[in-house]
């Protein structure tokens, strides 16, 4: 699994990566019989919904994700107007809280909410910087992000792109390679040529190619996230895991938006 939010969760993780051990137990037989009228009433009753059984449902994930996304946008808008210079604080706090939440077995709604606020501060400030340099770029990045995310969802629902072990391994290796590439680019920015703010490895036509590749990785990560959520729902995961699912989607969405913003900036530069 590419996204650590899902891969480190026993709920959303790929069962092929687990060693399942059985447990033995004892059962007790009922000490009373059920009459025919009661049996007929039980058979005629409607099936219990996921809400009634306390199990995870797609509605839970959608509601939690929409709520976190609204909080992210609201925080970003306030930061943009009031104090865009706080973006560096939001970036550091968001990174720390992101790692804490990603490696927790059980979701913590408070920590996930704080992460969303921190990311809102970061995105609001960095978006204001890009908008001042390239007017209209934020709106384009938002539309591009939504378009890529919607395309990833459509591909997943259509079944044309299947999450197989080979697909997952390719995504993990590609993301590790991109991370190493990005770190090298940052080192060059600090000690050498800045590449006009993007780093020497992200400038010009090569920078555009790398940006398109990064956007493709984020889209592939969305598909893997959707597959993990589907497994959680099908397995009857606890309802509280909707927080983990929403958090994982927000992480991927933030990454996709940043890559889209950088790609558009390189094109317009």
From TrEMBL:
The chain crosses the membrane at residues 61-80, 86-103, 110-130, 136-156, 168-191, 203-229, 241-258. Residues 1-31 are annotated as: Disordered. Pfam families: BaxI_1. Keywords: Membrane, Transmembrane, Transmembrane helix. It comes from the Bacteria. Residues 1-11 have a biased composition (Polar residues). InterPro entries: BaxI_1-like. This is Bax inhibitor-1/YccA family protein. It comes from Cellulomonas composti.
């Amino acid at each position: 699994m590419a996204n650590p939010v899902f891969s480190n969760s026993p709920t959303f993780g790929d069962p092929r990566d687990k060693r399942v051990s059985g447990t033995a137990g004892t059962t007790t037989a009922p000490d009373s019989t059920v009459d025919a009228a009661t049996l007929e009433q039980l058979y005629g009753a409607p099936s219990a919904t996921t809400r009634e059984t306390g199990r995870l449902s797609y509605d839970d994930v959608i509601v939690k994700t929409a709520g976190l996304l609204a909080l992210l946008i609201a925080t970003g808008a306030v930061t943009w107007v009031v104090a865009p210079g706080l973006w560096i604080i939001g970036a550091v706090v968001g990174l720390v809280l992101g790692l804490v939440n990603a490696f927790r077995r059980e979701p913590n709604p408070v920590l996930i909410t704080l992460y969303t606020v921190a990311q809102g501060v970061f995105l609001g400030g960095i978006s204001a910087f890009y908008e001042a340099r390239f007017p209209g770029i934020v709106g384009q990045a938002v539309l591009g992000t939504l378009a890529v995310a919607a395309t990833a969802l459509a591909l997943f629902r259509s079944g044309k792109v299947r999450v197989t072990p080979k697909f997952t391994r390719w995504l993990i290796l590609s993301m590790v390679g991109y991370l190493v590439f990005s770190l090298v680019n940052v080192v060059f920015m600090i000690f050498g040529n800045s590449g006009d703010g993007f780093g020497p490895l992200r400038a010009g036509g090569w920078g555009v190619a790398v940006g398109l590749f990064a956007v493709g990785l984020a889209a592939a990560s969305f598909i893997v996230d959707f597959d993990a959520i589907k497994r959680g729902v099908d397995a009857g995961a606890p309802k509280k895991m909707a927080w983990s699912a929403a958090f994982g989607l927000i992480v991927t969405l933030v990454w996709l938006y940043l890559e889209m913003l950088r790609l558009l900036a390189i094109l317009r530069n």
